[in-house]
């Protein structure tokens, strides 16, 4: 069982994690999530604007998951951000 | 016909901890109906807001009478989109969640606002709103009663307790969650 303080965790820090909708994409998803969670807590929330180090892992993950979404015909195309009763993000 | 629900609670954890946990919210013991989770979009805007879109698939849970009335809806999972905006300067997170399919049965839109409790900065305020609508004639009220109960049940645990990794220090004051 993975505990806090373990040094041999490898690429998976998290003992419990979700699967991707594309079965083949789960490992890529977990790699991206690990990168993102670290950046989010240690950089973004602390006001560090030095940029997102996860673009490459995100790209690989997206290639896989977008293909799975198309294959399963999940209706995500053309859906406005913040969807119904719009909350507009400031640009 | 539609119904509107809203609630406000205090999460007894600081905002930055609630936010970090928000992305790692699944799985948890109260979310066994959530089957998959994927990030589809992320962007940091020029005003340093983080925009995200997540796709969740959930099992379609209906009470027994509804299963008999709507057997065609049982076979397919529910696809849910969750869009969110994090403002790390204002310490707010706004989320909007809605179902992409099964809309002929019901559409549920939920908006959440997580913000630092300014009177008590070690806490986070959560304001939830839900708009539930169905076009199915004659079934509006029972559907919405069931949905409201389900919504109220879902208010408590996974929102209130950000999970932390278990610690193996026997002298630690914090308990694993």
From TrEMBL, chain A:
Q: Which reaction does it catalyse?
A: a 1,2-diacyl-sn-glycero-3-phosphate(in) = a 1,2-diacyl-sn-glycero-3-phosphate(out)
**Gene Ontology cellular-component annotations:** cytosol; mitochondrial intermembrane space; nucleus
- Is Membrane tagged as a keyword? no
Q: Where is the signal peptide?
A: none
- InterPro entries, sorted: MDM35_apoptosis
| Any single biological process term in GO | phospholipid translocation
Q: What organism is recorded for this protein?
A: Neolamprologus brichardi (Fairy cichlid)
Name this polypeptide is given: TP53 regulated inhibitor of apoptosis 1
> Which keywords does the record carry?
Disulfide bond
Q: Name one Pfam family in it.
A: UPF0203
Per UniProt, what is one GO molecular function of this protein? phosphatidic acid transfer activity
Q: Which residues form a coiled coil?
A: none
The similarity annotation says: Belongs to the TRIAP1/MDM35 family.
Automatic annotation (TrEMBL), chain B:
| Segments forming domain PRELI/MSF1 | 2-174
Q: Which domain of life is it from?
A: Eukaryota
Record region (Disordered):
148-177
PROSITE patterns, alphabetized:
PRELI_MSF1
What's the short name of a Pfam family annotated to this entry?
A: PRELI
Q: Name one GO cellular component term.
A: mitochondrial intermembrane space
State where composition is biased (Basic residues).
Answer: 153-166
Give the protein's recorded name: PRELI domain containing 1b
> Per the UniProt entry, what species is this protein from, by scientific name?
Neolamprologus brichardi
Q: What high-level taxonomic lineage is stated for the organism?
A: Eukaryota, Metazoa, Chordata, Craniata, Vertebrata
